[in-house]
Amino acid sequence: MEEQEKSSTLKRLRNRYRLVVINDDTYEEMITFKLSRISVYVGLSTVFVLLVSLTVALIVLTPLKYYIPGYGNNNNRSELQVLKMRTDSLEQAVLYKDQYLNNIKKVLNGDTPSKLDTTAITVPKPVISND
After folding, report:
1. Which terminus of the chain is more solvent-facing, meaning fewer CB atoms within 10 Å of its CB: N or C?
2. Rounded Cα–Cα distance for residues 129 and 131 (Å)
3. How far apart, in whole angstroms, are the C-alpha atoms of residue 85 and residue 122?
4. Domain coordinates of the chain in residue numbers?
């Protein structure tokens, strides 16, 4: 059963068809093509592969590749890393300054915490001798 289906599929692929382009006004045949299904599949596959190849070649071999997100040369990547490190350090510095200014505002407004962060030191009184 499967052999018959395979042979019938191959026969259908190899059957010859005629494609005729006719002028609608004069009914004159303009162009005639003799095609089979397999030749149409091969032709369309070839066109697809050529278009994909040309597109890839256009992107890889021209400066268009620099417009693709994430693509760049090593120089740009190292510069980007340096800029990221600088930005992070500047953000940290701004956070520290904001914290410092907020603490100064609290001290000036008298909003100090009731519990001090230092422990009281008991200093013994000096003994005065009456000699």
Report:
1. C
2. 6
3. 48
4. 9-72, 74-108
Say if CB 34 and CB 16 are below 8 A apart: yes
Whats the size of the chain, residue-wise? 131
Q: What is the mean pLDDT of residues 109-131?
A: 73
Cβ atoms 40, 18 nearer than 8 A = no
- In this structure, which amino acid lies at residue 39? S
pLDDT of residue 34: 93
According to DSSP, residue 17 is labeled E
Q: Which residues contact 74 (CB under 8 A, 6 or more apart)?
A: none
Average of per-residue pLDDT across 49-70: 90
Among candidates 45, 48, 29, which has minimal Cα distance to 37? 45
- pLDDT at residue number 126: 81
d(CA 45, CA 16): 19
What token pair was written down for 41? 């599949």
Are the C-beta atoms of residues 35 and 21 closer than 8 Å to each other? Answer: no
